[in-house]
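Whether sequence alone determines local backbone shape is best considered at the level of individual chains. In the encoding step, the backbone of a single protein was reduced to a row of integers, each denoting a local shape. For completeness, the protein is quoted in full, as a sequence line and a line of structure tokens.
***
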Amino acid sequence: MKLAFSRLLAAALLVLGGTVAGHDPAFARTETRSALAAPALWEVKDADTTVYLFGTVHVLKPGIDWFKGGIRRAFDQSDELVLEIIEPDDPREMASIMSTKAIAQDGTMLSQRLEPSARGKYQAAMEANGLPWQAFEIFNPWMAGLALSVAPLEKLGYKADQGAEKTLTAAAKVSGKTIGALETPEQQIGYFAVLPMAQQVAFLTATVEGLGDMEAQFASLIRHWQAGEPDKLAEEMNESLEATPELAQVLLFQRNASWAQWIKTRMERPGTVFIAVGAGHLAGRNSVQDQLKALGLLSTRVGE
């Protein structure tokens, strides 16, 4: 597995977020171009219903001015905001959901699932990112993999409270829009919990191996998102998932198909809906747009 897999998980799932300071010269170039940010937006439309599709990044640095132009107009015209999940107001509630699903039921210590050489690298990576590996021993490998996917981004200054969902949710509350979700937190976390153990170990190992390159590669992902380049996002984010078909099926393709069916059903009622999901779901083969096309629905790119 390539690093892009762990990068996609860090960007595409609302499960572990945080805020710490940091600086990245590659990302500084992105920040200086923030006024030009124009992420991609699509619409699905019939006589009395419009559904906008917006791809998000869940953790960002301050200073990226993306909520404007066509995106802001589409949002303002919408009656309803629909996200992947609605996060609990109390972070402890999400932590409780995660820990309940993450505890290993067979009593095997996490480090014992790893080969000796991989075990040492894992423990060193956890300690280097301020994560006590001993505290994760009772958990399944996916939990540690997610933690390691996010911790380096926290060090670099990416903030969950700067993520697109936080901005959209706050704006929706101010304007009195209905806020809905395509999944529950339990469902989203459950996608990891049901992964076969071999896949969980492979995910954790790949995340550890890719930590050294994550800084530059995540900055590249952000630049493609800002520039509205879904094809390049697909190349960087989804290619590695497609190289691991079982993971791609569970974490990406099945969810895309389910969301497309939700949109098809929603098109039967009038109104305007703004859907915001991880950008990886709206890019590449078997994207939500591809699944909509299979259902007979056309999605078109919305310009500035």
Notes: Residues 3-17+38-301 form one domain. Residues 1-35 have pLDDT under 50 and may be disordered.
